[in-house]
Fold this sequence. Notes:
N-(1-d-carboxylethyl)-l-norvaline Dehydrogenase, domain 2; Rossmann fold; 10 strands; two-stranded antiparallel ribbon; 11 helices
Amino acid sequence: MLAGQYNYMKNIAIIGSGIVGRATGVGFLSKGHRVVFYDVQKKVIKKLIDEGYEAHHINDLEASKSNIFFFVVSTPTEKNKINLKHIKSATKTLGKKLKNKKDYFVVVVRSTVLPNTTEKLLLPIIEKESGKKAGLDFGVAMNPEYLREAYAERDFKNPWLITIGSLDQQTRDFMADIYSDFNAPIHHVSILEAETQKYIHNLYNATKIAFFNEMRLVSHYIGLKPEKVFDITAESAEAFWNKKYGLLDRGPFGGVCLPKDTQAFLAWARKNKIKMGVLEGVIFSNEKFKHFWRKNNK
Length: 298
């Protein structure tokens, strides 16, 4: 089945209408699609209605009126573990609502979920509750979002890239069609790759912030204002200007500079009683990877 065989305009259901859900729905509305918002919070629903959007409680979802269902439900971390109760509940509700749906539809997970959640947890719930078969009666996709909280709607309408993890070719064509009017490169991958990529995206951002905050602590200790040093580093360090740096499978870092300088700086920090958790983690991780690399490259 070729892209473009579907009607361009879609009837979209946004399940979970917080910041990301709202931005997603408003963005698709701007492209000419029909969008209905669903949520469980009365204040969220009322605000959307007051602003002129169609919004309902998820219990009032009419599956016959939509052909693509976006899950944008919160997946909070509680007690250091992901809590999937909200998305599992929403998935179960949707599955029941889909039982009598006759035409083909696509379910899209836009929430951030851990690897294998979509195919091994959510997909089976939909199949069980709806009595339908994924890949035959409906498609499944994982479409991670990269929206910044303060600019969510603007970011959705002007994406720098779009990632779509699809269960099969039919889902891929369907999803390519709905994003065909967005001026951005589309990366088509598997569902597992899309789930994993979103976490790598967020973990990298977190690690970079943590690293430079740690360098701020060092700068404060030695009486240095770090802004100029950071700006120069952004131009001098290959990890900044070579976007492929560190991505190739070339083993742990080695050579003349990196091993000795990481160890030397950590020893200096310890002598001066400066805690450097990020740097310690870098050295530990590199040493651990050496064993993996040697074992798998004999």
